Amino acid sequence: MNEYDVVVVGGRVAGASTALLLALEGLRVAVVEREEVGRDTVSTHALMRAGVLQLARWGLLDQVREAGTPRIGHTTFGYPDGKRVTVSLRSSRGVDGLYAPRRTVLDRILIEAAEAAGAHVLRRNAVRLVPGPGDRVGGVVTLTEQGTEVPVRAAFTVGADGFRSTVARQAGAVTLRRGRSASALLYRYVHGMETAGYEWFYGRGAAAGLIPTNDDATCVFVSTTPEGMRALRRDGPEQAFQQLLGSSDPGLADRLALSRGQGRLHGWKGAPARVRRPWGPGWALVGDAGCYKDPITTHGITDSLRDAELLAHAVVRTLDGGLQPARALATYQQTRDRLSRHLWDVTEEVAGYRWDADSVRVLLRNVSAAMSDEVNLLESLPFPHPLVRREQTLTTLTSVGTVAGRERTSPL
Amino acid sequence: VSTRIALLGRFGVAVDGLELPAERWSRRQAATLVKLLALAPGRRLHREQVAEALWPDADVRGAAPRLHKAAHYARRALGDDEAVVLRQEMVSLLPGREVEVDVEEFRSLARTAAVTGSSSDAAAALTAYAGPLLPDDLYEPWAELPREELRTSYLDLLRSDGRWSDVLAEEPADEQAHLALIREHLAHGDSRAAERQFERMDHALMRELGTRPSAEAEELRGHLSTAVREAPATDQGVRLVGRRAVGDRFRATLARADHGQGTTLLVSGPPGVGKTAVLGLAEALARRQGWRTGRGTASAVEGPWPYAAVLEAFADLCRQHPALLDGLDDNYYTEIDQALSGRDVAWTGDSGHQRLFVAVAELMRLAATGHGLLLVVDDLQDADEASLRLLHYLSRCATSEPVVIVVAHRPGIPETARQVVESVVRRGAASRLELGPLDAKAVCRLLVEHFGELDEQHVQEIVEASGGLPFQVLELGRNLVDGSVSPTPALSLTASETFQRLALLGSAFTTDEVLALSHGTEDQTYQQLEEALTARVIEPAEAGYRFRHPLLREQLVDAVPTHRRAGVQRDVAERVAALGGSPARLAHLFIEAGLFSRAVPYVLRTVETAGALGAYRDAVRMVDAVRDHAGPDDLPGLLARRGDLLQALGDPDAVAAYQEAVPVTSGTAQRLVRARLARAAGMAGELDIAEEALAGLEPEGDAADGPIVLARGQLAFFQGDIDAAWELANQGRHNLSSPDDPTLVMELVNLQGLVAHQRGEWFERFRMELRQSRGRQRMATTVYDAHLCVAEYLLYGPVPYREVIADARGLLQQADRAGALRGVAFARALIGEAAMLMGDLDLAEAELTESAELHHDTDAAAGEAHSLQRLAEVRLARGDASEARRLLQRALPLARWSVVSGHVIQRIYATMIVAAPNPEAARVVVDQAQAALGDSDTCTFCGVMFAVPAAIACAAVGDLEPARAYLTEAQQSTEQWPGTAWTAAVQEADGHLALAEGRREDGAALLEEAVAGFEAAGQPRDVARCRAMLDRLHSELPASPVG
Fold this sequence. Notes:
The complex is a heterodimer of chains A (412) and B (1043).
Chain A: E1 4-9, H1 13-24, E2 29-32, H2 49-57, H3 61-66, E3 74-78, E4 84-88, H4 103-116, E5 120-122, E6 125-131, E7 137-143, E8 149-159, H5 166-171, E9 175-178, E10 184-191, E11 198-202, E12 207-212, E13 217-224, H6 226-233, H7 237-248, H8 252-257, E14 261-262, E15 266-268, E16 274-276, E17 279-280, E18 283-285, E19 291-292, H9 300-319, H10 325-350, H11 357-379, H12 390-397
Parallel strand pairs in A: 1-2, 1-8, 2-5, 3-11, 8-18
Antiparallel strand pairs in A: 3-4, 6-7, 7-8, 9-16, 10-13, 10-14, 10-15, 11-12, 12-13, 16-19, 17-18
Chain B: E1 2-6, E2 12-15, E3 18-19, H1 28-39, E4 44-46, H2 47-54, H3 60-78, E5 84-87, E6 90-93, E7 98-101, H4 102-116, H5 119-128, H6 141-160, H7 164-170, H8 175-187, H9 191-206, H10 215-223, H11 244-258, E8 263-268, H12 275-288, E9 292-297, H13 308-320, H14 330-341, H15 353-368, E10 373-378, H16 385-398, E11 403-409, H17 415-426, E12 430-434, H18 440-451, H19 456-466, H20 470-482, H21 493-505, E13 508-509, H22 511-517, H23 522-534, E14 538-541, E15 544-547, H24 550-559, H25 562-579, H26 583-592, H27 596-613, H28 616-626, H29 635-649, H30 654-664, H31 667-683, H32 687-694, H33 705-718, H34 722-735, H35 742-758, H36 762-773, H37 777-783, H38 787-796, H39 801-818, H40 821-837, H41 841-857, H42 861-877, H43 881-896, H44 901-915, H45 919-933, H46 940-956, H47 960-975, H48 982-996, H49 1000-1017, H50 1020-1034
Parallel strand pairs in B: 1-7, 8-11, 8-12, 9-10, 10-11
Antiparallel strand pairs in B: 1-2, 2-3, 4-6, 5-6, 13-15, 14-15
Helix pairs in contact in B: 1-3, 2-3, 4-5, 4-6, 5-6, 7-8, 8-9, 11-12, 13-16, 14-15, 15-16, 16-17, 18-19, 18-20, 19-20, 21-23, 21-24, 21-25, 22-25, 25-26, 26-27, 27-28, 27-29, 28-29, 29-30, 29-31, 30-31, 31-32, 31-33, 32-33, 33-34, 33-35, 34-35, 35-36, 35-37, 36-37, 38-40, 39-40, 40-41, 40-42, ...
């Protein structure tokens, strides 16, 4: 007998969002997360329009705002030829600006929403899959803090356990595409820095970004190829950071120097992108576990928020017997791939760091075009999400009206 | 003594209740100083703040005397020696005096209203806001922020006081205001008024790029049960009866475009043949492939704003894909948004349309990225000229993108549209698709599809009566089924009259307009609407209604008896004017109705916007329609603008236009007109007129000072007084008042460039200007214009061609990014010329063709002539002399009217000589050229270009005297430019003359030297020509002197 309809391995953005949506559907959901709720993690946490739209649809954007996350109204692009281009963000339904909440903020909001919707959060480590009937996966074996192995049986298992996904490995998820490029990153939080919103700089063989976030901090990252980073780090990470800052934009170092304080450096050595087949009998993958893109286009969280909904929809259809599981999950994969492929290809190119002033403009044009497709799809979904209680989204909408019906959402 | 300063809605100073006369403020700097200080807290500023605001380009030392001068005149204007005090580092206005400034008053009342929240306090504050801050100083950067701040606080007051209609007068697309009014109407139980308000909102939002009604609005609309009215689905099926071949053609076109070979399809056919349906088919096919699409319709009747047809297509695109705008540079967005909004824009005299073109092309590329883009423009025959030019440009940009542009038009389109169509077809950027009537079998299938089986006799009747036109087929079929006899849908008499009036108004209209044009009560009018909808005369549109088919509208128009037409049109115009609306539309309606004097004020506003957006030709037509009916208040502005428009178009009639404007203007306006007259006359070579225009004009500290200095400098240049021209140009740039008038700066740069060239310093100068104009787009756009002749120095000089090409490519990229189309055109011309000289004819042809087109699109006549002349040389090198002659004939009239005519014309004639079919004809061209050129205003450097072929042509027919004269001229000209390939060219001419004089050995030696010179310069074609000549000499055959 299954304790749960769905067990979600991983309680960060992709996992918590999936768990939230499934729990809203009335399913019994468990989330297995080994870390403390809302712990910070390596992340370029800039949300794009599609990501903000999802939070607004789920009635969670207000909490992001209330946490003091600054609204971002402009994006500035700096090119290798020194030119600057500013794009102002126009408001659209639910989206009054972009936001880049710290992961401590966003992850907590999502997991708490999932819990509030009825999901059980189990603070344990998932060690291996439990075999289910036939060739299906039947849940996961977890390791409690006390070191005991406890199986969590479920009709369906979701791997939202990141790039090095245990679920993917154990379920034998086939890798469909593997990238060649990778960005190695160094980043730190800087306090009291003036920014014009998101600022992205594309220099010669290096990139940098400014992402204003909570607590008057700005995430300042620099990136280059892993080889380039290894060479630069020989003189220490600080040197490498400064060097890359200068190669990305000559004015950045001065701006940083004017800030009130700079936190310690974090690093990510880079890994090539990977797309896995995201489903099999009784299991599915979401977020980086299923599709990992290089962070240079800072689109990972947005993708996760999008795919959580696509997957939740598919899982519901497989569990309520409305659709053959294979068909529902194949549709999930198709939609994910259709929306990701273009951006995946461009991200590969951008993460190659072989651009010049002209080609990087073309690449970024591609990024914009791909994001527009994604927004088009998400804007076609009901606003707010039909299962989200209306009062949760009232302030987002600043409107009055009747309570929305509780039909099932149909994103596909 | 009490002083009151008005800054809101106007500028004025009253002392003890008496308004100072406006003439006191003719010194612009003095007035500006007073305004600036009146606006400052405590009416005082640090002198550096004043200098920074008024003379941003001047250093501290330069600003000091100007400040003293401005203060002096300000004191004089205010009639008070202590009015402006410069003490220590501070500048104060009327310190210690009793002074009221309306801005302060408004701010204080607004603060009170915000605190108390009382309606009467709000009303008091609103009364104190007499209008926007300093409306005559729109381009003063220091006024921008406070103006916006005051306007925002005015709008906040209106909102807090619930004065929503007033909010909409300021911000027509303010959704909050629309929704509030809708709710008010609903609260009063007036759902029709609520619907109309919705319609107004939809209308306003359609003119905002990428804006859709919010969720809140849609929800409210949902509550208006009676209002839910589906606009007809624009998505057609992917199958049309009898149009399989058309569908196949679209599929093939989309497939090719998918591989980056975009194109334009021109769909033509008579009314009713189904063009619009075919466009729908194209859209459906494109969408099925995941392409993005956008659709616009040209409409002459509504009197659309410039670029309407094309921009509508982009607006439609952005409504469907608003997130695309997240990838569009704000500068581009602003350009497109401004043109789309139809807001009044003041024309500063520069050509903003180049930036608009670049912006639209960038949006097109962005939208095409990933999947592909289909743009549809219907009814091209009704498009304004500005739309045509933009379309022409986009068609050419589309060829290297996954873009398909489908344009539909009726046969017999206007001349400009025909030229555009032919040009893109000739360039291979477009192909035609003619729609013919359906054959009998297809007509049968269509009838079956819509009406089921009809009896054979009826079918046969319809086949014959319809002429195979689908529209007629369906109308006849429907009549048959409904049992009605009349081919036109039946409407009651009153409804017919209402919709006849609406038909005169245009093809689409709003409910407000239906109410305005109906003579019945509201209830009766709504009944008429229902009637017309039921009879399928009209159908719902995106915002309001439209006639279901242009033919239906035309039938209604034709039903108005001719003798009553004028009266009805007048009635329509007056009633619509009472509703308000775009000035362009009202101007158009009044002109159509023959009420010219009523049209005048609207024309004035329209011309301003049209000028700013580069829609010059459309604007000139409009001015000409009403000028004879303008009263004394409007005529000066109208005539001055007419001159400006013609000048912007490079039309020689600008001189006469300005001459007409002089006697009706006065004061600064007249000084400006005289300066512009002088400039136009100088360029036209009418130096006497120019001199007369400037006679007695002295600096007066007003806005005309700069243009007058410029005109004097240009006149000096044309008169050959290079030093004076240089002096005046520098003086002009030094004394430029704030804010930088971009057009004036560019003209001065132009003049400096010309003078620098005459002095042999052009290349350095040009690079310097490019560096300085980097990041200053407006400046970069016309720095290029001074190049046309002077770039020849670069081309014939010691820089290797590959380097020139590489440099020019850099320039091209730089200009492209800056949105400087003229810069792009210039760079392409330079690449083409270098390629031609080094013998790469394919590259030369491609670049020069593009350059000619780009110059044409941007109304740069000089550049177009220049490129055509070079293109003629390429055709000539390919052995196609007759095409070369055709191109030169096109170039000649363009070149005559331009600041660089003295250079280009010589080269056009030079190429004409070489392209002449025989030596006798060549000799005739030499004489023609001499007559046309005169000897006053030709460029000494460019002289060699004409003198060399002229000498050779004369020598060829044994006309030795003039041959020697031309040779001497060429030699003198070349001496000024040592180390250029022109030395070799002169040797070649010398060789020809020697041969004609019978000095064979001298001739051979000179030709050998020419060969060496051309070789050193890397000009293989010239080497080959001289070698051939030598070969003929050596083989002892009688030599043919012309190469």
